[in-house]
Automatic annotation (TrEMBL):
Belongs to the AB hydrolase superfamily. AB hydrolase 2 family. The lineage of its organism: Eukaryota, Metazoa, Chordata, Craniata, Vertebrata. GO terms for molecular function: carboxylic ester hydrolase activity; palmitoyl-(protein) hydrolase activity. The keyword Hydrolase applies. This is palmitoyl-protein hydrolase. InterPro entries: AB_hydrolase_fold (IPR029058), LYPA1-2/EST-like (IPR050565), PLipase/COase/thioEstase (IPR003140). Its EC number is 3.1.2.22. GO terms for cellular component: cytoplasm. The keyword S-adenosyl-L-methionine does not apply. Pfam families: Abhydrolase_2. Residues 12-223 form the Phospholipase/carboxylesterase/thioesterase domain. SUPFAM superfamilies: alpha/beta-Hydrolases (SSF53474). Gene3D superfamilies: alpha/beta hydrolase (3.40.50.1820).
Amino acid sequence: MAAPRRLQMCAVAPAAKHTASVVFLHGSGDTGQGLRAWVRDVMKPDLSFPHIRVIYPTAPQRPYTPMRGAPSNVWFDRMKISRDSPEHLSSIDAIAESLGSLIQDEVNAGIPKHRIIIGGFSMGGAMALHLACRFHTDVAGVFALSSFLNKDSVAFQAVEQRCRSLLPVPELLQCHGTGDDLVLHEWGQDTAARLQAAGMKCSFRSYSGLQHQLYGPEMELLRGWILSRLPLS
């Protein structure tokens, strides 16, 4: 088997000793640098912490079916942006290996898995849910902003099987705007409801009128939630 592809990334270093990490995945067509710049635009002064390294990886370019096969920086392929579409598991699982290598780099640097949070915006949120529900169930938490899972996602099945076996799963924070016309608010609501029904502890926050975008109050909520999961140590 070929070695996992190394991902380009940018990161915000902690102001003091590095004792925890957050991996923040961008949406389709974006880059780690693009997401990092967007976060800085909507948050003052920044999503930064004295003890947490915030990592923004970039998805490699691949043919993307919703763009008629044109190359794009996407975490996985899909037939269309719809919860009714089947998952493209081969591309999801392949990039999960590369992201797993990035997480392992943090572990090798002395950060235990229970001091790592995975999250993302839009497609990045869906990828984060696959990582936390299927591959890295021992992380401190997962967040998904303006995101959803397909209605028959294997991530639902994975959570249900773990909870039935009394195995832990990470806690989820999910946020979504009611005005989102790309990833509908009801898709996000349904995702959280199905994960909660499977046994996952979920918090879902709606923002009235918010479209498919990051939002300052949402990001401040995220900052507080991250600190609750990864306190200064």
